[in-house]
């Protein structure tokens, strides 16, 4: 199994970080500090330079430090014996990402080069939140299984948006509806297939992870419920037949935007009936499943980012996290307000580094 790790990171004008340089350890990096000092921003910078995205917002302009025109993240990355440089430059009106000075033809190609999995407090929405959170998880996995699924999703969403506009402005007999529906059906069917394959892989990895972490005897059922069809002919027929309904609702009632990864604990829907502790365990199991799927798809141990997980888990589940970290071969970055919790006798002293962050600046 190949390994990937950050060897150097430079962050400028990012959130509340003016300028910061970090030379991470190969295995475990513990970043301590009080709330609001920049711990999460540092993990977000790592995530942004690896994936071209943020795990906190869809609007990348929010990453730019207040009063600055742009922010930048530079990383030196080692993958086995090879080294590369990745850069992210994000401004109010522009953004750019490059590998060894060259811009990728497609962002999907960039996003899979350095696999990263993050677990942060907002991930609790994976179980307790709306279906969109679980669809996003499937899309992250699908990116590594089939990178083209990102473009398929974008084209599908664009065609669906144009179809709805035609319905709203010109009614169910608009002359261009059929053209928009054919495009939506083509890419929607591809996206549906990619989602199904991603769901199959997530479920395969999820069940043993949950069994390992949960209270003995607790049962989990996970199933994929598609909202559309993998057959373009079926897809286009359904869209045509649902025009009146979709005009009234203001959105399409058929397609992968209605997918659900249904989760139940002891026979009851986890979102409504699982206890808070059970939801936390299931969320952690979902993140382990995500890491497993990406590792298997790329044959690379992803970098693991853990943002203040000790505040979201009870002591027994925190112990499960530590047990997972001991087994993991990933480079790990952990943020915490309680660094004393992270003992690591399994990690050589040369492979661990500890910092404290204060007002966006690192202290050894």
List keywords for this structure.
single chain, 364 residues, alpha/beta, 6-stranded mixed sheet, 11 helices, 15 strands, globular
Care to give the gist of this entry?
The chain is of the alpha/beta class and 364 residues long. 42% of the residues lie in helices and 24% in strands. Strands 1, 2, 4, 5, 6 and 11 form a six-stranded mixed sheet that branches.
Task: Summarize the structure in words.
The protein is globular, with a radius of gyration of 22 Å. The longest helix has 37 residues, at 177-213. The mean pLDDT is 92. Strands 1, 2, 4, 5, 6 and 11 form a 6-stranded mixed β-sheet that branches. Strands 7-12-13-3-14-15 form a 6-stranded mixed β-sheet, with helices on both faces. It is 42% helix and 24% strand. The chain contains 11 helices and 15 strands. The chain is of the alpha/beta class and 364 residues long. It has helices spanning 39-51, 107-111, 125-128, 131-145, 148-170, 177-213, 232-241, 243-249, 270-273, 276-298, 315-327; strands at residues 2-14, 17-22, 28-32, 70-79, 82-91, 95-99, 116-119, 220-225, 260-265, 268-269, 300-301, 303-307, 332-336, 352-358, 361-363. Strand 14 and strand 15 (361-363) form a beta hairpin.
């Amino acid at each position: 199994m190949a390994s990937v790790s950050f060897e150097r990171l430079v962050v400028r004008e990012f959130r509340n970080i003016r300028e910061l340089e970090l030379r991470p350890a190969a295995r475990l990096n513990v970043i301590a500090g009080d709330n609001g000092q920049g711990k999460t921003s540092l993990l977000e910078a790592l995530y942004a330079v690896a994936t071209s995205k943020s795990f906190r917002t869809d609007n990348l302009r929010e990453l730019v430090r207040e009063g600055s025109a742009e922010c930048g993240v530079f990383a030196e990355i080692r993958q086995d014996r090879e080294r590369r440089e990745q850069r992210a430059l994000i401004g109010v009106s522009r953004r750019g990402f490059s590998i060894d000075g060259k811009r990728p033809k497609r962002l999907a190609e960039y996003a899979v080069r350095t696999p990263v999995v993050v677990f942060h407090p907002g991930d609790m929405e994976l179980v307790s939140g709306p279906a969109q959170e679980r669809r996003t998880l499937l899309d992250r996995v699908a990116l590594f299984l089939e990178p083209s699924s990102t473009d398929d999703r974008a084209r599908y969403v664009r065609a669906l948006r144009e179809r709805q506009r035609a319905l709203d402005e010109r009614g169910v007999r608009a002359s261009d509806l059929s053209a928009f529906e054919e495009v939506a059906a083509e890419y929607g069917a591809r996206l549906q297939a990619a989602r199904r394959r991603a769901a199959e892989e997530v479920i395969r990895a999820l069940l043993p992870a949950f069994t390992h972490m949960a209270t003995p005897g607790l049962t989990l059922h996970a199933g994929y419920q598609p909202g559309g069809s993998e057959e373009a002919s079926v897809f286009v027929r359904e869209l045509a037949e649902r025009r009146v309904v979709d005009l009234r609702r203001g959105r399409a009632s058929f397609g992968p935007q209605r997918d659900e990864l249904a989760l139940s604990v002891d026979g009851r829907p986890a979102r409504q009936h699982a206890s808070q502790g059970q939801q936390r365990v299931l969320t952690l199991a979902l993140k382990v499943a995500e890491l497993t799927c990406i590792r298997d798809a790329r044959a690379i141990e992803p970098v693991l980012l853990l943002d203040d997980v000790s505040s979201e888990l009870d002591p027994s589940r925190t112990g499960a996290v530590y047990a997972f970290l001991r087994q993991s071969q990933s480079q790990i970055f952990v943020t915490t307000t309680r660094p004393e919790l992270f003992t690591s006798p399994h990690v050589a002293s040369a492979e661990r580094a500890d910092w404290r962050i204060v007002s966006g600046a690192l202290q050894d």
